[in-house]
Design goal:
By secondary structure, the protein is mainly α. The protein contains 16 helices and six strands. The longest helix is centred in the first third of the chain and has 24 residues, at about 80-105. Bound molecules: zinc ion (2 copies). One zinc ion binds near residues 114 and 124.
Length: about 375
């Protein structure tokens, strides 16, 4: 990024708490995540929520959707402007809403779940102000409310639940995030014995249903559903991923699709047309196994040998002058409908590929 400082330069700047850089950096960091209610203490918020909840029209914010803000005016704030007043009201309700949500969902109360030897694992309570470690320049951001974790107000407003937002900066937190993410990405598929264990567990848990009065068809439908559900829980597979798979959507997004080119067999095929010993030598060095490897296919007409390069050689007449590169990347192989019905479909072996590219529609060819 042009003009951006190196981590070393940032570090040097952060060592001087009097500098404007220090002030602006801390302001920025404090604006993106915080650990206290907006402009209020916990007791004040507690009273506010209790008061608001006494109104019969009051709705629990965790059960409602966020409201979009009005378009901001492009002039200085003006008390006479109708839209300015609307904005003010929106911001006020935003703050109340966020405080309410935080009070409902982000308060940490210690109990058996978090205490180890009388001390809270989550290190609550912990109030402190923003400080910078003088020796290493590490920034510890302020957190004024003892029983709150850290969050971003906008995210809380939008998600209406308990998000946990932490400034990573550097140090152990960043390392543990990297470890956490790689743990997820490298998640291995289930071991065979775990799969069988899961199936067995479902059977054991469902003995009443299996021996019950339901129709056999219904039982047969319910069991696999439960097995699949518990398998996908074990695999920690997300619902969107399962849905994408069922709907036949790809599990990743990509800007390019690649096609395989059988270059070696193609080039040795081409070299066959030269008699020169030099070229023979070259071809042999290049290809340690000069004998053509073919796939033998059976059809009504008998056995035929097939190699992928036949797709490059035996093209329909109109495409005989298309350059190989264009031919490979634009053509798609498809089973011709009449061939499929006339001969044993499983033996023709012609790969059927979905039409990926409309440009290629006219280039359908038969091997
Ligand atoms: Zn205005
Ligand atoms: Zn605790």
């Amino acid at each position: 990024i042009v003009n951006s400082l190196s981590p070393q330069e940032i570090h040097a700047q952060m060592m001087n708490p009097q500098s404007t850089f220090w002030k602006e950096m801390v302001d920025y960091l404090e604006s993106v995540h915080q650990g206290e209610f907006i402009d209020k203490t916990m007791t004040e918020v507690q009273n506010d929520v209790a008061y608001a909840a006494s109104d019969p029209d009051y709705k629990d914010p965790t059960q409602t959707l966020p409201e979009a803000p009005p378009y901001p005016c492009n002039h200085q704030p003006d008390v006479k402007c109708h839209n300015c007043t609307k904005c003010d009201t929106w911001w006020q309700s935003f703050k109340n809403n966020v405080n309410d949500l935080l009070y409902r969902s982000n308060i940490h109360s210690c109990g058996d779940h978090c205490t180890v030897k009388g001390e809270c694992k989550a290190k609550f309570p912990r109030p402190y102000k923003t400080t910078v470690d003088e020796k290493v320049g590490y920034i510890i951001l302020k957190k004024l409310e003892t029983r709150l974790n850290t969050f971003t107000t906008t995210l809380t407003y939008l998600l209406r639940s308990n998000p946990d937002v932490t400034s990573l900066l550097s140090g152990t937190a960043l390392k543990s995030v990297a470890a956490y993410v790689t743990d997820y990405i490298t998640e291995t598929p289930l071991k065979t014995y775990t799969i069988f264990q899961t199936i067995c567990d479902v059977f054991n848990c469902q003995t009443t249903m299996i021996g019950g009065t339901l129709r056999d068809q219904e039982k047969a439908r319910k069991l696999p559903t439960q097995i699949v559900n518990s398998l996908s829980v074990r695999m920690e597979m997300g619902a969107p991923m399962a849905a994408a798979y069922l709907l036949g959507n790809p599990d990743h997004y990509t800007s390019h699709r690649f096609r395989t080119v059988y270059w070696k067999s193609y080039s040795s095929e081409v070299l066959k047309d030269w008699d020169s010993t030099d070229l023979d030598q070259l071809a042999e060095n290049d290809n340690p196994n000069p004998k053509d490897q073919v796939v033998v296919k059976r059809s009504r007409e008998g056995y035929t040998a097939y190699t992928p390069i036949m797709d490059y050689i035996y093209r329909p007449k109109p495409f005989k002058d298309v350059c190989l590169y264009d031919w490979i990347h634009l053509s798609r192989k498809k089973l011709l409908p009449n061939i499929a019905s006339n001969s044993d479909a499983s033996q023709t072996g012609t790969a059927v590929e979905a039409q990926e590219d409309s440009r290629a529609k006219s280039l359908i060819h038969k091997t």
